[in-house]
Amino acid sequence: MHAGEYLGSEPVLPYLSPELDGDKMLVGANFASAGVGILNDTGIQFLVYFAQYQKRLSSLIGAEQTARLVKGGLVLISLGSNEFGGNYYQFPYSARSREFSLPDYVNYVLSEYKQVLTKLYDLGARRVLVPGVGPIGCAPAVLAQLHSLQDGSCHPEMQRSAEMYNQRLMAMLRDLNAQLGGGGGDVFVGVDTHRIMSDFIEDPEAYGFANAKDACCGHGRFNGMAPCNLIARLCADRDAYVFWDAFHCTERANRLIARQFMTGSVDVISPMNLSTVLAVDHIRRLALHAMAASSWLLPVLISCLGIMLPTSDAARAFFVFGDSLVDSGNNNYLVTAARADSPPYGIDTPDHRATGRFSNGKNLPDVISEYLGSEPVLPYLSPELDGDKMLLGANFASAGAGILNDTGIDFGNIIHISKQLVYFAQYQKRLSSLIGAEQTARLVNGALVLIVLGSNDFINNYYLVPYSARSREFSLPDYVDYLLSDPDGSCDPEIQRAVELYNRRLMATLNELNAQQLGGGDVVFVGIQTNRIISDAFANPEAYGFATSKEACCGQGRFNGVGFCTKDSNVCADRDAYVFWDQFHPTERANRLIVQKIFTGSLDVVSPMNLSTVLAVDRVKSQPAAAHLINIQP
After folding, report:
1. Which of 137, 138, 276, 346 is the most exposed place for a label (fewest CB within 10 A)?
2. Is the pLDDT reported for residue 443 higher than 80?
């Protein structure tokens, strides 16, 4: 595939190539062979060659350096498809299909595969990428031979076998990691190739393909008969096809699969994607030199390294800063118009009580706490925040707050971000009186911090009135630069364009901060493009299980978007069918979607790594701890 290209290295040579010698051997080698399988009757054994390679390399650079190179290398092993297409389903009553039921055959194949993978480990491999079986029932060769499937639908039994195999493969890899990973982290990374490719096949147009049934090169029905050769029928536009020949993908399809290797979420690659593997390994190498770093922003996650990590994610303190998207009730204690302490807010909480959250139920911090396995943190102004409750962290957010201190002044009394930071300092003094300064510093440095700001700087500042003070003072691009350059400020225009412009420049700012901070090993920022996450749900609500993304569940007037959500408002019956709860804020279900992306999203929505990766990196580190700050973009 294209993993080597993503890694920035040249392609490795075939092991049997006479060119594989000298310095070329330092790049690695390719031992794959067409037709090979896990079972001895589907192909040849290749592990012997891997051992031979190491002996040859040892004669060049020595045994110690060879062991180091192999241990630090990335191994891709792609087996399994031939066990089905070239063995079990080779003809209607193959020897294997008579010998085994499908579930027993899958177990038999995986027991043999486990031995292969264990042998790889014994030979020194410590990072092994293990793709599962693709959608073998959809291959043009299968469609061409099964005349009963006149519509070109995939063979259901073969699809079932691939799904069963992949599920059990993932479970087997988890067991192997538990047995062999030890203190060195996960060795084996499983890839659900079937799920990745099924998306192409079910909706090829969404991925830029015109055809997912026919092979580009071949003969007969679906171009799936006989091999691709000089007399085969060849398509003109290879990039429009998922399949190149009867079984194999085009280069473009391979690129999409390789991209999922690098950036895919945990539902297709587990326990982490290849970008995460590289980040974990990089940080482990830094830790060996007494350095480490990691963190977030956009929402913004910051990571300040230097303290021992908490023993579990649930034990980690959690601090929240920001606006109404994350306010859990601080404004209940203020004289302000920005309050959510009366019905129908909180209609879906267990006691149906309005808590000050701008939601029908849980807000973003609540769902993040749930993912971490801890209870929600209390508002800083709550009289209940005392004693052991303080060890969990605190929520300093205030509805109406922005990056700029003049944002939200129309709401009356709110806690501006500068004041939220003052409260954070006060919190640490209060906690120090309970557990001491050293333990307080340890708790804060090992904490997760969520900061959600920026939306009000547009909605309740720049766009507040047709000619607001800020819009007269700044052009949109200059306003964005002002927000990002000023420690008190943030961003910009026609509201979606403003958000996109802001987010792009914020990401650039975070990249610069990361470059500066990594030198000292202190802070890393991770940005989350909430606009992109929500825009997907807004543009195609049905794909996410919503019925509408335009109307608020609670409100008045057009789109239920006029005025506040009050006891006199129109309230929808099914909150889970709506993206928006009120005129500005998501429903609990939409919040859950956002948090799921924060934890498992790919690099196009959360960068440089998602929260699951941050937590995995922290668990890998044996020395310094990390305080992470999440900052959610508008």
Report:
1. 346
2. yes
Instruction: Give the active site residue among 155, 219, 585, 628.
Output: 585
Query: Whole-angstrom Cα distance, residue 249 to residue 196?
Result: 12
d(CA 408, CA 577): 30
Residue 46, judged by CB atoms within 10 A of its CB (0-12, 13-18, 19+), counts as middle
Spatial distance between the Cα atoms of 613 and 301, rounded to a whole number of angstroms: 12
Using left for φ > 0, alpha for ψ between -120 and 50, and beta otherwise, residue 559 falls in: left
Query: Which residues have a Cβ under 8 Å from the Cβ of 345 and sit 6 or more positions away?
Result: 354, 355, 356, 357, 358, 359, 360, 565
Cα 21 from chain centre: 39
Are the C-beta atoms of 242 and 197 separated by less than 8 Å?
yes
Active-site residue, 410 included: no
Question: Helices in 181-250 by DSSP H: which ranges?
Answer: 193-202
Residue 585 known to be catalytic: yes
Which residue in the list 198, 324, 382, 471 is annotated as catalytic? Answer: 324
What are 625's two structure tokens? Answer: 């701890």
pLDDT of residue 274: 82
R_g (Cα) of the chain, nearest Å: 28
pLDDT at 297 > cutoff 50? no
H/E element holding 58? helix 47-61
Are 375 and 430 contacting, i.e. CB atoms less than 8 angstroms apart? no
DSSP string spanning 263-331?
Answer: H--TTTEES--HHHHHHHHHHHHHHHTT------BTTEEEEEE-SPPPSSSTTS-EEEEESTTT-SSGG
Confirm whether 369 is a catalytic residue.
no
Joined tokens for residue 364: 């973003």
606 forms beta bridges with 528
pLDDT digits (tens, 9 = 90+) for 131-154: 999 898 899 988 888 655 567 788
Other CB atoms within a 10 A radius of the CB of residue 249 amount to: 20
Give the burial string for 75-109 (b: 16+ CB within 10 Å, else e). bbbbbbbbbbbbbbbeeeeeebbeeeebeebbbbb
Considering the candidates 366, 457, 481, 582, report the single residue annotated as catalytic.
Answer: 582
Predicted local distance difference test score (pLDDT) of residue 334: 94
Tell me the per-residue pLDDT of 451-496, one tens digit each, with 9 for 90 and over: 888 888 877 777 665 556 666 677 777 766 665 654 433 333 456 7
